Structures are given as C-alpha cells and as structure tokens.
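ok so I'm stuck.
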Amino acid sequence: MSEAATHLASGKVRELYELDADRLLLVASDRISTFDVILPTEIPDKGRVLTGLSGFWFTLLRDIVPNHMLAIREDGRSMECKRLEMLPIECVVRGYLAGSGWKDYKATGATSGHALPEGLRESDRLPQPIFTPATKATTGHDENISRDQAAELVGAEKLAEIERVVTALYSAAAEYALERGIIIADTKFELGYDADGTLVLGDEALTPDSSRFWPADSYEPGRGQDSFDKQFVRDFCETTGWDKTYPGPEIPEDVVAGTRAKYVEAFERLTGVSFDAYLADPATVLA
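replied:
not stuck anymore, here's the structure
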C-alpha cells in the first residue's frame, strides 16, 4: 500500500483498513465461503471481479443515491471509500422467488411480512420487487425480519427512504442486466449515513457474492436456476459428505476454474469491459 493503513477488521471476503479519519480501504480477497464457512481454496481474481463490478454499479447508479467509492486502486481489488455509519440491517430486494424467500413462502405464503399471491413456483418473477430486510448476523446466516421489526431498528421514516432507494436501485440494475442476458433474482445492499446525515450506498453492490445472477436464456420457473456465482462450489461441497462446519473441503482445480469463469463472464457481460482490460486499467469500469 502506498500510504500507512491500519487494519480494522476481516470479513469472509474483505479486509478493512483505516486510511485516515474520513477514509477506509476495502480490499477484496479471493477467498470463497459456502454455508458460512471460508474454504481453504481461493478462486483466482474473484476479489477483482467483486471490486470492479461494484465500482461499475456505483458509477452507473450514482444518480439514484450517492455511494462511498472514492477510487479503485491499481491492483483492481482495493477500493478507497468514504467512512459511513452503517445501518444495522441488510437491505435485501427480491424480484424473483428464490432462496430463503422461497422457503418462507412455502411455509407461510409470505416473506418478511409481504403476503404473496397463491400458487407461485420456485424462481417465479414476483408481481413487483419487494424489500425484505434482514438482521446482520456476526456468525451464521442473516435472518429475515419484517418491515415493522426493521422500523424498530432504524426508525419508520428512515426505513421508508431506505425502501424507496433500494427498490429503485434494484429495478434500474435488473432492467440493465436483463438487456445483457442476466436476471438479477435478488440482491443485498448495505447503506449508511455520512457525516452530513446523507444516506449513502456502501460495501459492495450487485456482485455474484451479494446477488443471485441467473442466465436469462435458460431461465425456467418451477425449479432452481443456473447461476453466475459460487453454485459450482456449493454443488461440489454437497457431494463430499462435509458436515458444513469448519474446516471446509479443498476445491478441485476444475471447480475452481469453472467458478472463476462464471465470475468473469458475469463481469464482462454486465460491464461491457474485457476482464483483461480491467486488470490493465481498473478505471475502465468507471467511465
């Protein structure tokens, strides 16, 4: 690093450093986790995909809400960011019925307090995108909560603004991605407030780690979908007899290569920039 930085925290994927009182440095590693366990094998360039895609979306969507990005460094995986006071909730928006939303619907006919039409199938498109907040779990899975529970955490007025912003972000991104052959089934946003009290988009945005990306040309409701994420790794782990506790299994080379290829394909489809061009000059995604 070109300037002194103090290490603040390690996440599953990112390392967080303090540059000064106003700026942080987020460094996206090549680590990959499944079932909330960091696996011993890394996916080459995964961190660069996450940082580059986030930078691309921050640039594309900045008219909807400000974001924390200040710069992407030459390594392609480090992003200088404005320091924020982060919200205590995950801001999940769902456009399709999948994952925990599908599980909730099967059990109750609703998810996060949203009553949904009867007879929906797995992976069906919802009548309109829905905001389904979740708690931030320090260990294990985040848990879906209702809007009323979220309002208790952040206040009803702030929650209304948050819901408006994240729904607009999702809708704009989903429309853009669909034109490039990718369905964004759902995604998770993290927001916070800057020193002036302005709502700001932070963390990462609309990556294969924070979203479900499905290829539009093979989309078929009524089943799980192919995806541009770590599904190769999840599927492999499911075949090993692993009990989903630490430590996880080593990932074979073909699964590593397949996973990297999916991440890079998603990057190139969405940004319109070749990954090699990004590696040569990360600023290409910010145009």
